[in-house]
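Following up on my earlier thread - several people asked me to post the actual chain instead of describing it. Fair enough. Here it is, all 235 residues.
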Amino acid sequence: MKDLLGKAILDFQTNNNPQNIITETDISESEEMDINYLFRKYEEMPKIEQKALDLAKGKILDVGCGAGAHSLHLIKKGFDVKAIDISPNSIEACRLRGIQAAEVKDILDLKDETFDTILLLMNGTGIFGKLINTTKYLTHLKTLLNPGGQILIDSSDLIYMFDTDEDGGVWIPMENKDYYGELTFTVEYKGEIDNPFNWLYLDYNTLQNAAHANGFECDLIYEGDNCDYLAKLYI
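Reply from S.P.:
Thanks for posting it. Predicted structure:
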């Protein structure tokens, strides 16, 4: 990976001629995103993210921290926060922003540490990549939880993006896919295009079933207006 999203984040943080990024998926056209959005403050965040931050407690792990907006808010509130991301540029930006415990790390490689709250926000199920990987990730996340700990994770049901026929049925092209929420993303920045990557959106019922199958309780905490939701997983 060229780490173009991370490059955009670092360019913004260092005022190095930052530009908007362009994202595209295999089921949607390209969209331009203002990189400033990733540096938003609590007051500018969607309700789902605000709710997750309000529920965070104890020692916190921010998975896929990006520019560190969630971590910074929690650190300012006095929490002990570890921020991880697979993007070296993003982690450099986080450190420049004052997040000392920021580390380039894949969640599956994090071991021998436990937390009271694990945050997976901005479509936290995305890191699973494909539906088949859900059990692998949930099993590993369980090893990172302290007794009484919680995982706060958000996602969206993408069923609304597909065509509905006269009988109310939904037409979903499933070529090379096991589930309609499996997307392939590409990111473009300053004329460069990064390698495509898999990104998973899970509807709540599917997440709940996977959670139960892996020994978690799963509560629906909040539903947004765009088929999005926040869930809490715990033992």
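The radius of gyration is 18 Å. That should answer part of your original question.
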